[in-house]
Amino acid sequence: MLSRLQAISVKVTDPFVSLSLVQASRSLQTSSQRLAPVPPLPDHGGKVRHGLIPEELFEFLYPKTGVTGPYMLGTGLIVYLLSKELYVINHETIYAICIGTIIVYGVKKYGATVAAFIDSINEEKVAKAQAAKDSHISFLTEAIENEKKEQWRVEGRGMLFDAKRNNVAMLLETNYRERQHMVTNEVKRRLDYQIALQHLNRRLQQEHMINWVEKNVISSITPQQEKESIAKCIADLKVLAKTTQAKAAA
Amino acid sequence: MTLSLFDQFLSPVVCWIPLVAIAITLPWILFPSPTTRWLNNRSLTSQNWFLSQATSQIFSPINPPGHKWALLLSSLLIFLATMNTAGLLPYTFTPTSQLSINMGLAGALWMGVVILGMRTQPTHSLGHLLPEGAPALLTPILVIIETISLFIRPIALGVRLTANLTAGHLLIQLTSTATLAMLTIMPVTAIFTGILLFLLTLLEAAVALIQAYVFVLLLSLYLQENV
């Protein structure tokens, strides 16, 4: 049996035969030949009247029977089924009325809510993706702005370096001046010291000389000399007194 | 044709062609396979949402090794819920009202979980035959009782589903027969019976979904014990 299968498969995979088979059946192939892009879903489903009957039936019958055509058809069908007892009214009919009421009521009352809920599930999915996309875009925009700011900062870097260089030069200059000032002060101090030393020497010499002179003078004054000088002084004083009296009387 | 009360439980046949296979594979047609789209239409979105909710609900208390049963139990839930609710429509055959189908599902799945438990962790599985905190004197009796309850589980599972659905369907048939019969004789009573039928149908709709959920929940509990 496997050999038969092999023989058949060989026959079908003969290129000419298979190609012609595909070509011939191309009109019967209904699914799309590519997987992507997926064709979009229509926004609304097919239009139905009374929830069950497609609109196409009404449009089909409209040219011949007008607006009431399908309704007459429906009524006629139902009446025919009932009158010929093709459909027998039994307990299931009552039950059918009951469950039909429940279904119609349920759909009418809760249909919109349920549809809105289901739409919200899809909307949430889209919103999540949109939020992710938006956050990514904002993150990238921020990154671009930050990059531009960094570039502007880089331009200002030269000014920064100049300012720093100036600072350093000022510091160096200040330091140099301070040291010069210090040097001057130190030198002046040493020179002042030397001057003070010289003054001190001179003064000491002067005092010593004065003391020596005084000592010698005082030691050279004999008592006789002292008496003579005192007598002379007294004679001088008397003369002075006379002249003064005379001046005062005159 | 006049229907007797039990015609709804007969295996459906049209011109001697059995339709039971179509009846059983109905859920397969109603629930399409996942598409290649990111956003689907409403029916597919709602089905996917419901299924994901139900699966997370059922499987959150079960240990990770039991999550291998997710596909089986979730598809079982869909299967039972669809067949139960489809059986609510008039003139339909409900496969889950047949003992054969329910016992087949219950027995096979119960045996699966028990054998799984016995093979992977026999001590732990056998330990379930003696509940914790029981006084030591009652041990022999308790073990016997627990063993009996263990073996009754598949019967209980299958019969619970069958009985609920069969009883519900029968009640509906009876009430609607009563309504129809009294419609010409005593219309007022027929109206009251009609209201009763209305409420009963609502109950049956709830029971259809609840019984499916209970079936799957109990199986997940048995799985939780054994995995």
From TrEMBL, chain A:
GO molecular function, one term: proton-transporting ATP synthase activity, rotational mechanism
Sorted UniProt keywords: CF(0), Hydrogen ion transport, Ion transport, Membrane, Mitochondrion, Mitochondrion inner membrane, Transport
Entry annotated with the keyword Membrane: yes
Any single GO CC term annotated in Swiss-Prot or TrEMBL for this entry: proton-transporting ATP synthase complex
Record localization: Mitochondrion; Mitochondrion inner membrane
InterPro entries reported for this sequence: ATP_synth_Bsub_B/MI25 (IPR008688), ATP_synth_F0_suB (IPR013837)
The keyword Membrane belongs to this UniProt entry's keyword annotation: yes
Domain of life: Eukaryota
SUPFAM superfamilies: ATP synthase B chain-like
Subunit structure: F-type ATPases have 2 components, CF(1) - the catalytic core - and CF(0) - the membrane proton channel. CF(1) and CF(0) have multiple subunits.
Family, as annotated: Belongs to the eukaryotic ATPase B chain family.
Known function: Subunit b, of the mitochondrial membrane ATP synthase complex (F(1)F(0) ATP synthase or Complex V) that produces ATP from ADP in the presence of a proton gradient across the membrane which is generated by electron transport complexes of the respiratory chain. ATP synthase complex consist of a soluble F(1) head domain - the catalytic core - and a membrane F(1) domain - the membrane proton channel. These two domains are linked by a central stalk rotating inside the F(1) region and a stationary peripheral stalk.
PANTHER family found in the cross-reference section: ATP SYNTHASE F(0) COMPLEX SUBUNIT B1, MITOCHONDRIAL, MITOCHONDRIAL ATP SYNTHASE B CHAIN
Name the UniProt record assigns to this protein: ATP synthase subunit b
Organism from which the protein derives: Poecilia mexicana
Taxonomic path: Eukaryota, Metazoa, Chordata, Craniata, Vertebrata
From TrEMBL, chain B:
Substrates-to-products reaction catalysed: H(+)(in) = H(+)(out)
SUPFAM superfamilies: F1F0 ATP synthase subunit A
Subcellular localization: Mitochondrion inner membrane
Coiled coil (UniProt feature): none
One term under GO cellular component: mitochondrial inner membrane
Main location group: mitochondrion
Alphabetical list of Gene3D superfamilies matching this protein: ATP synthase, F0 complex, subunit A
Keyword list, A-Z: ATP synthesis, CF(0), Hydrogen ion transport, Ion transport, Membrane, Mitochondrion, Mitochondrion inner membrane, Transmembrane, Transmembrane helix, Transport
Entry membrane topology: Multi-pass membrane protein
InterPro entries registered for this protein in UniProt: ATP_synth_F0_asu, ATP_synth_F0_asu_AS, ATP_synth_F0_asu_bact/mt, F0_ATP_A_sf
PROSITE patterns membership: ATPASE_A
Record-annotated membrane-spanning stretches: 9-31, 69-89, 101-118, 138-159, 180-199, 205-223
GO MF entry, a single one: proton-transporting ATP synthase activity, rotational mechanism
Entry keyword Plastid: no
Family: Belongs to the ATPase A chain family.
Subunit and interaction comment: Component of the ATP synthase complex composed at least of ATP5F1A/subunit alpha, ATP5F1B/subunit beta, ATP5MC1/subunit c (homooctomer), MT-ATP6/subunit a, MT-ATP8/subunit 8, ATP5ME/subunit e, ATP5MF/subunit f, ATP5MG/subunit g, ATP5MK/subunit k, ATP5MJ/subunit j, ATP5F1C/subunit gamma, ATP5F1D/subunit delta, ATP5F1E/subunit epsilon, ATP5PF/subunit F6, ATP5PB/subunit b, ATP5PD/subunit d, ATP5PO/subunit OSCP.
PANTHER family the record matches: ATP SYNTHASE SUBUNIT A
Protein name per UniProt: ATP synthase subunit a
Gene source species: Poecilia mexicana
